[in-house]
């Protein structure tokens, strides 16, 4: 988890979600940090079933993603983030998936 994500978690946690309308924060790379959000099993939801969801585990990579470079106009271009975070879930009806 990079420093920007950690800072966002600290800031959002410290403000205790002063407004009920604030439930998530979207980062420029497309990742979303959701606070108090919902997680549903899509299989159960499709069949009209209810289930609880357990987090089975999370894996993260912390790799060197290469050096940036300077483009034709002389501007620095940072390397894209090559690290991943994957979380495995299992619902009480036995379905499992990874996001």
Brief sketch in words of this structure:
With 99 residues, the protein is of the alpha+beta class.
Describe the overall structure.
It contains two helices and seven strands. A hairpin with a 4-residue loop joins β6 and β7. The strands form three sheets. The protein has a three-stranded antiparallel beta sheet with strand order 3-6-7, with no helix packed on it. A two-stranded antiparallel ribbon has the order 1-2. About 9% of the residues have low confidence. It is an alpha+beta fold and 99 residues long. It folds into two domains: 37 residues, no CATH class; 62 residues, no CATH class.
Strand and helix map with partners:
Layout: H1 3-14, E1 24-26, E2 32-34, H2 42-46, E3 53-60, E4 69-70, E5 76-77, E6 85-91, E7 96-98
Beginning-to-end CA distance, first to last residue: 16 Å
In spatial order, strands of the major sheet run 3-6-7
Number of helices: 2
Count of separate structural domains: 2
Top keywords for this entry?
alpha+beta; three-stranded antiparallel sheet; two-stranded antiparallel sheet
């Amino acid at each position: 988890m990079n420093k920007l994500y950690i800072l966002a978690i600290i800031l959002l946690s410290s403000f205790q979600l002063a407004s009920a309308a604030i439930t998530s924060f979207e980062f420029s790379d497309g990742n979303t940090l959701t606070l108090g959000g919902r997680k549903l099993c899509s299989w159960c939801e499709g069949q009209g079933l209810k289930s609880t969801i357990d987090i089975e585990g999370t894996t993260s990579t912390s790799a060197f993603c290469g050096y940036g470079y300077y483009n034709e106009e002389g501007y620095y271009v940072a390397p894209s983030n090559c690290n991943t975070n994957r979380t495995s879930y299992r619902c009480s009806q036995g379905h499992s998936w990874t996001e």
